[in-house]
Amino acid sequence: MVGLPDSSDHDFPSTPPRPEDSSFYPQSTTPSQPPPAWASHASTTPLGPPPRSSFNPGNTFSRGRGTPLKSFALPESSPLREDGQDAEPDVDTDETSMSKAAAMRRSALASSLNSSVRGLKRSRSGKPQSRRDSSIPTTAKSLAKQARPARLCEPDTLIIASEEVIGGLESQMQDAGAQDGLETALAKGCSSLAGAWVSAAAPSTKEASVGPAKDEALANASYIGSLMLQLHHPHSAKAHRPNADSRYGRKSLLPASPTHATTLPRALLDWLNTHHNPFPDDYNDIHLHQPAPSDSDSFWDVVYATALRGKFERTIRLLRDAGWEHAVTALDDGSEDPGYSGRQLDNTRLMVARCTTILEACPALTDSDWDVKGRAWSLFRQRLGRAVRELEDFAEGEGQEPEPPQRDNIFAASAGDFAGTMSLSAASKRAESKVPFTIVTNLKTLYGQIMGKIDEVILPSQDWLEASMYLTIWWDGEEEGPPPVALGRSAMRKSIAQGQRAREVDVTPLTAYRQRLADAVALVTDDPEDPVFQVDTTRPVLVALACVMEDNIEGSLAIMRSWSTTITAAVTEVAAFGGWLPQARPRSKELQHGFSSEDLMVLSHGPGAVQPSGDVTRDAILTEYADLLAERETLTNRAGLVKEGWELAVAVLGRLDDTATAQRKIGQLLGEIDIADNERAEKVLGLCSEIGLADESRVIAERYADTLASTSQSFGPALLFYARAHATGKLTSTLWHLASLSLLHSTAVPSPASLDSTLSGLLFPPRPAFSRLAAQDPSAATLLSKALSGYATLRVFYALRDHDSLPPKSPEYSSESSRPQARQRSAAAILIAALSSAADSIRGGLFDPSVQSAISADAILVLLAETLPFFASSASTESKKSAKVFMQDHLFSPLRVVEDFTSSPSRIQTGAEALLNATIDAYTTPNNAKMTRSRSNLLSKSRSDLSSNSGLGGSYDMLRESYMMVSQDSSLGGKDKNVAGEVARGWDWRKGLSGAGGVAVKGDDVIAMVRLGIAAEMGRVWGGK
Description:
The chain is 51% helix and 2% strand. The chain is mostly helical. Strands 1-2 form a two-stranded antiparallel ribbon. Strands 3-4 form a two-stranded antiparallel sheet. Strand 1 (62-64) and strand 2 form a beta hairpin. Helix 4 runs antiparallel to helix 5, helix 10 (342-360) runs antiparallel to helix 12 and helix 35 packs parallel to helix 38. It is rod-shaped, with a radius of gyration of 47 Å.
């Protein structure tokens, strides 16, 4: 050592006097006196390097078994003392002495963790530098612009499962009475989504790094999406019963319902244990290490890792089975061989046993309580603090007061400058400690990690993700640091007031935790010295991860959009349901009900609403997803359930915020679907009904009904879909088409043998088709029931007339009407009812177009002609009283109809005359008439003519020709009942009509015969015959 010359021979610089108020001036670094001479001041510089674990104890996380992690870098320069350190505190002299006495109890056994955090740059005051604006959002936006839109490559099972979960949540949102259970439903939905994603892309971590092992789109999206859901809706994979504590901490007598919701610390631990395992799990290797676990260099690393990951059972097992007589840390404490012995071994076992006893009392183990900010954990942390003080006191020995650290040197506060912080006396006391120094240090580090101390938490962290997560998971919820050792009166009052004030983490825990995570990321990654604490912005998945941890939702979704549209859409939907999607509109449609477009524009809910500032919007994501789904023909899940792509696309579009856009897109999509059968039509309409698209449903139903009416002979489905479309005009036109065909040929059309099942289900009990329609659309069932009554009445009349020719199994066959006379009376009563219905619109001879009668007025003459056989029957059996068909009340109805019809407008009379002539022509026309027109065109044309040109004779002529062509295999107009192929009728009014053999019969002739029959019948009734 080279000696220094005598200081008296030289003039040394001196520090100029400082003003009284020196708090505004930086601390001077000029020595206040000459340096010490070597003869009078012995050097404190160690002769050799310090022990390997004295600076960073436990900092040997292995990258593999037996391969220690490289030493953590220390700051290049030690921090200065804080400004104003020498200023007089605002406390009494006694308080000052007490403060100094308390500070002196910090012995040299206190590790260097009390100062700088690993890898974090410090200011000259020794504190971490102030947070700078993050560059991650700008980087994320740039990456999103460069990325290409994702294609729909996800498995069918994932797509269907995601849509089922989102559909269930949508139903939950629409149910106003279930709002209280919305958070529970969201947690369950998030758990289901995360499970489906994990099944589709098994999680794996890139070795010695952050992020998925393989740079695959689905794995990246699952990695980011699952963390987003955990941060906003913490959930567990399995349902559990939460602790049902009352307001005053007492256990509830009623067990809580199982739920997937959990606390955020537990949720983050689950996510880490699933998605972030950069190094192999060495627990089993260390626990089975020979001759003892503590003989491994990685022993304390694994202890720290198990504790920080919340696996306290493993931590306790390692500490109990450590085998301290073989501990390798004994080498760091000056022993020549591994292992402790004697007094140190006994004291080590005692302190470790106390540690395991305390860990067993952790609320996570005793009550499965992971509310780390809560009351139980606060008491547990107080117990940990007492354990630290007891450990220090026991290690130092009774009556020993450690010397305070030497602060003459401004660099003495450095965490790594052990020589500057420990005098020879302190070093000697370390050797005299009851408990080995490394054991004390590692136990204090373990306690500090669970207490959430920043230095102890960051120290064993393997990367910036773990450091940020651990700082959030083990946070005690306090916004400020611990109170000072000694408080003045004003400071004491302030501390009490702060303790009584509600904490943000207790009011809005998730928001506070997300802010804590964002602050932790800033603290760890803001220009660190250790490269493992830097975010690799060249990897999009890490940029997206940083966005999630900084609570940048738009940036995360923008990057995820280029990986998986399915997962991005699911996260977006959950964010909208949970209310954490930026600029998301309310999902309740009732909220917008009653407002005009101008009102909605002002309230930012209408078309003029301000869109989010970013490029990612909910509607844009869902529209893109729907377009991709529409391109897929079918999708099948594991259970064999088949879904068509357009089904899922319509469901997604139905959840758009912009209702007008949703209806337009759905209309375009459904307009391109080829509806070829009833099954697909029912599926389309059912889907529209589920998502509340009534207008689109009616348009589709009407379009499909038009197709059926023009291309099919099955009228039942056409009637059913016209009713579901609420197309009253087309429904009435189709039914009049059937009714006019029946009147035209004086028989039920279609015949019982050719009646389709749907029409049969509408006409005859128990009417299953009506029951299904009423369940789907009650208003449509009412509409169809009214419109169908006229046609159904005509079929009943013809069934009673032709009873003898009906097969017994026919639905129109009635075993009760076995007597011919009874059937005649019933048929006459039904015929009079149909005639009265047809004349409802011409009461008093005045036509009222507002009257919606079940049968058109065009049928009046034909129905009057149908009554002629009954008058003839009464006249031929005049002597038989029992043969009377018409009752007195029945005679007034046809009389009124005749008088009203003769005084009605000419247009009504012309239409009835045309149908009468077509009916007679159909009876006289040969069956093998040559037909040259297209069958479908004739049917369509005849129906449209009936609806638009009622009253023109040509329309009924075309109707007669078209149906005769359709029914060429069975004669509808033959003169002889016994000829093969003819329709069997009980009677035919055209047979006995004068002039039916070719002589033209006019409507006046029919009216005259009806009047004559009524007069004769009335005379017999009044004459008592």
